[in-house]
Structures are given as C-alpha cells and as structure tokens.
Amino acid sequence: MSGLSGRIIGLRSAGALRAAAGAAILFAPWIRARPPSTPSPSMSATAETHAFQAEVNEVLSIVVHSLYSHREVFLRELISNASDALDQLNLRALTEPGLLGDDGELRIELVVDKKAGTLTVRDNGVGMTREELIENLGTIARSGTKRLMQSLSAEQKKDVALIGQFGVGFYSAFLVADTVTVDSKKAGSDEAWVWESQAKNDFVVRPGSRAGRGTDVLLHLKDDAKEYLDEWPLSAVVRKYSDYVRWPIRLLVERDDGKAQKPEWRTLNAARALWTRPKSEITREQYVEFYKHTSHDWAEPLAWTHFKVEGTHELTGLLFLPSRAPLDLVERKQGGVRLFVKRVFVLDDAQEILPEWLRFVRGVVDSEDLPLNVSREVLQRDATTRFIQKQVVAKTLALLEELAKEGETDIERDGKKEKRERYLEFWREFGRVLKEGLYHEPDLRAQMAGLLRYESSRAQGLTGLAAYKQRMPAEQKAIYTVSAESLAAAEQSPHIEALKKRGYEVLYQLDPIDEWIGDALREFEGTRIVSAAKSALDLPESDEEKRAKERHQKDLAPVLARMHKVLDERVQEVRVTERLTDSPACLVSAAQGMSPHMERRLRDAGHPVPAQKRILEVNPEHPVLRKLRALADGDDERFQRWTALLHDQALLAEGVLPPDPAGFARKLAQLMGEE
Ligand code: ADP
C-alpha cells in the first residue's frame, strides 16, 4: 500500500517537477530595467544645467564619431518622433477633444532659415513637459541600450551595424547640428520649455515662449551639413525614408516667380498609411523603410507578411521579422507590434494581441472592429482581441513555415546580394524565444514542432525533425535525442554509441528547454521521440543479439546484484545494456525521470529537486566487466572500489563531477599503482 501511494506521489511530483522545469528554464530571474536616474541640476537665474547620464555621453560620442556616413537618417529619426507625438495626441484627443483647440490639422513641418543656417522639424503633437524633456532627452531608459553601451569595446563602438541595432533616435540630430534646441509645450499645459545642448556632457533647460502645443527641434546645422537647407536634398531624404508616414510632412519653400518671393507649403510625402495600400503598389524599399521607421532598427528586416482578414472581423496586418535580435531579447517581455483602430494609433507594444513568445515580431495591426477608445483593460476582455491574436500567431507561423520551406535563397541585405538560408538565420537569433511558444501553447505544439532546429550527429549545422525523418533508415523506429551542455559533450556522449554505430542520427538538445520540449512532444508525425539517456532505446535486435543479451544478463546476474549492493544508495538498478559499444558503463534515467542535466539546471534555478536514482547500465563486452566478474568471487574491497570507480567515471563521461571527487581521484591513483 505504502509502495503504491509512494509511486503515485512519485509520479505526480515528477509531473509537477517537469512543469516546474519548464517554468524555471523559461522564467529565470530576468534582469529588470532600473528607472533612469536624473542627474541633479545646477541652477542659474533662468536656466538650469543638467549633466547627461553617462550612457548618453557615450551614445553622443558614437553619433558624432562613428555614424557620420549615415547622417541623413537624422531626418528619419526626428520625423519618426514627431509622427509618434502626433499619434499620441490623436489618441488622447478621442477622449479629450478640447486638446486639439483650433489647431486640429495634425502635421509635421520642416522650416529652413538659410540666413541663420537652421532647420526646424516641427510637430503639433503631444509635446513634452519640463520633466519629460529632462527624462526623455537626458537619459536612456532602455535597459538593453544601456547594457549594450556598457558591454561594447571601444573597437565595437565603431561598428555601425551594432550601434544601429538599437537606434540612436533623437541623438542623431547631432550628426548634422552642433547645437540642438528643443522647444516644447505639452498638450493641455500653458508652459513651454526649452532644452538645449551642444552634446558636450550637459544640456540646459529654461522656460520657453512657444505659443501652441507641440515640439520644435531646431538644428543649428554644422558647416558641412548646409545641404539640408535646400529643398531638393530635404525632399529626397523625406521621400526615401518617410514617404509612408501617415501625417503630412510639409516644407516651407520660397517660390521665385520672377517678381516677389512667396513662401508656400509643399507636402513632401504620400501621407497614407503604408499597410492600407495594396501589396502590388508597395516596393520592397518602402517595406524596408517602413520597418526601420516603426522598429527603430537600422538593419533590414529578414522577412515580412502583409495580410488582410475579411469576414466577421476585419483587420490588416504588416508584420516583420527582424534580422537580428536585440541584446535584451530574452528578458525583454514587451513586444513590438503597434495596434491601430481604423488607422488611428491606439497602443504601442500591444501585448494583448501579440503573445510573449512572439515578442521579436515588429509591425502594425489595424482593426476595423475594436472601439477607438480601447484601453488595455478592454482589450484583455474583448473577444476581438483573441481573434486578432489568433490571426497574428497564424500569420507569423505561416511566414516562418514559408521561410523554413524556402531553404537557401538569394537575399539582399544592406544593398548586397548574398546566398542565405533565412530560416536558419531566424532560428539562430530567435529560436530560443520561439521555443517558449511550445511551452505556452499546447495546441500549437504539433504544428510548431516542424519549426524546431537542432544540431545533430549527422554533420555540422542545424536540422529539423522532418528532414531527420526523411533520412531515417527503414528499420529505425524512433527519433533519438540526447541532452548535453555543449556540442562537444553531446558528440562524446556514451549514451549514443550504439545509435551511431547503427547509423542512426541523434539530435542534440543543447538548450535547457529542448529536453522539456522533447518530453512534451513525445512524437513527431507518428514517430516517437526517444531520449538516448532514458530507459529503453527500442533498437531492433536480431535473434542472435537477443540471445546474447539474455545470456549476458544471466551470466552476469550475480555480479550485477553485487554491484547494486555496493551502489545501493546511488542507483536503482544495475543491468546489461545494448546502448554501449566502446564505454564500459553509463547512467540512464527511468522513462519518467529527468536527465541529470535538467536536474542540475533546476537546482541552479533554486528548485529543490530530490536526488533521482538512475540505472547503471554496463557493457558486458567491455574488458572492465570481465575484470569485475573475476573480482566478484574474491576480494571484496577491490570489487567495491572498482564498482564505485565505474559509476563515477560514468558520471564524468556525462560531464558531471562525482559526488566525492577527492575520493574518486584517490581510488584512481590507487588503481594506477596496482600491478
Ligand atoms: P525613442 O524614440 O526610440 O524612444 P528618442 O531618443 O528618439 O528615443 O526619443 C526619446 C523620447 O523623447 C521619445 O520616446 C519621446 O518620449 C520623446 N520625444 C522625442 N521627440 C519628441 C517629439 N517631437 N514630441 C514628443 N516627444 C518626443
């Protein structure tokens, strides 16, 4: 009775442990972003001088010294900020129409003053308070950027591609300007404030005189950047980077009609949300620029999907896969999809429509059905949200499947044509996060299994389950896996000796979550997934092999029983195996158990895991076993010592330190000293 209930409890806790294992691996204590510290100001009569946060100085120095050849992007960055400010105002005005006042035509304006040598990027958007100016333009709040700055060497800081990964945003203004003056008035406030800096360690904040709501970014152009005072270079840059910005971008131009000079506004962009246009009208460049605009990534996206769903619910989506993962991908929990309702921006980082395990996806979703004044609370309750999320998941998975099918192709990146396997690039960057989906979405597991990639014993490089199955010899019954800390450890694993000898490929589970996924999947398209370090391997055996195994088991029975007695504390059974060809012994887990690898990870993550007794399997053909057989009749001390050594070396072969390393070393030395 007690044995039975013990077993049931044992099983239950094994299940609970496995669930805990998945959770522990996924939800290791993430490093949280600390709130930015605001340096204390030094006061003067009207203006306050504030020191930049250290990382801002670094970013500024990179901007000025390294990004010179990319400097035209300053306009994209400033227009993108202005466009965001208009989006936010537009949203707030839904509930507070008074905010618009008599200035309801939302727009971005570029104003050139040739005499003064200045260019102003102006918006009548949401504006910033004094505190927001200090906080937003004096510190870097994003933890990833901060850590990136701290981790890069001086040499790496010159790498534009690396730096471009996080985007330098507002600070790119210093690519073309030696002084930047931001004059801003928050919507609904009476106070205007000015922020000004020469990018030399500090900035000044003083009261401003701006009449209406919004922000002016006034650039005192450097001598070698005066081309941005001319209409044509300006309009070319706007068309190149910001044509799809949905707010009009106007430039005040002087028209020389022969008599008087009449300034007039000219709209530079198409000002229509890109995703509302038919695919056939959108060029590759426009998609790429739209991506850069919405994601603040300087690199081109790896792929995208542009779709429309019609029927009971209507929505349009334009979703991108970045080509590189941000540095804080694993701990960053927010996503990058913006939610629009009938072309009105309503939410940044709409987690409700993008599951966490797709947090690398960037882009927009525009719904026709949600209410315009939608809040996070409403979204969480609304059935439409679930519909949208389903669509986002389905379209993203379809895009990934398409990439996975495509194999090697020509792709153009940063203007260069190269042969690449896009799916593997994606997998290397984001596979770790995609795997979280298999944990969270049991219903999608079977579908997503096809997207998994592993290193394997076949050859260097990643492979998937479908390709593995195709290569399986006819008589092979299962898909084999082995968990290990590293590729080298997996390749040397004793557990897979017999499999390799038979020509069976073994998939290497090198990521802690892989083992969990293998156990959760159990099978792939009708073929079982079997861990080489667990219970039976289910190898096809010839009659002769079967007879030999039975004979060995019988012949060795007394030796095995004696070994078990010696190792009683540590193993639940000692038995003969067909798993080994070269090694004398290995340790395997029961079918329900977890590998020592997983056990260790769990302990490291702070979970109390009861020590699991495993099974010691021995290779009856190995000389060590013959020796043990000879010893079994006599010298008890030597038999015990040899058995303990055999057990400990099996642990070592897995990359695990024996429980008493000093004892192991002593026994080994003693053995070496023996005749
Ligand atoms: P990012 O746009 O990536 O957040 P930036 O350095 O470009 O980083 O801008 C920092 C912040 O300053 C923005 O997030 C925004 O809050 C604020 N900001 C910048 N420009 C404007 C603007 N024109 N109107 C209102 N707020 C702005």
List the helices and strands and how they pair.
Layout: H1 2-26, E1 42-43, E2 48-51, H2 54-66, H3 73-95, E3 108-113, E4 118-123, H4 130-138, H5 143-151, H6 160-164, E5 177-185, E6 192-200, E7 202-207, E8 214-221, H7 231-242, E9 249-256, E10 261-267, H8 284-295, E11 301-309, E12 315-322, E13 336-341, E14 344-347, E15 362-367, H9 376-381, H10 383-406, E16 408-413, E17 416-421, H11 422-440, H12 445-449, E18 454-456, E19 462-463, H13 465-471, E20 478-483, H14 487-491, H15 497-501, E21 506-509, H16 512-521, E22 523-524, E23 527-531, H17 543-566, E24 571-576, E25 585-588, H18 596-604, E26 614-618, H19 623-632, H20 636-653, H21 661-673
Parallel strand pairs: 3-9, 13-15, 20-21, 20-23, 24-26
Antiparallel strand pairs: 1-2, 2-7, 3-4, 4-8, 5-6, 5-8, 6-7, 9-10, 11-12, 12-15, 13-14, 16-17, 18-19, 18-21, 22-23, 25-26
Adenosine-5'-diphosphate is lined by residues 77, 81-82, 85, 123, 125-128, 136-137, 167, 169-170, 215, 296.
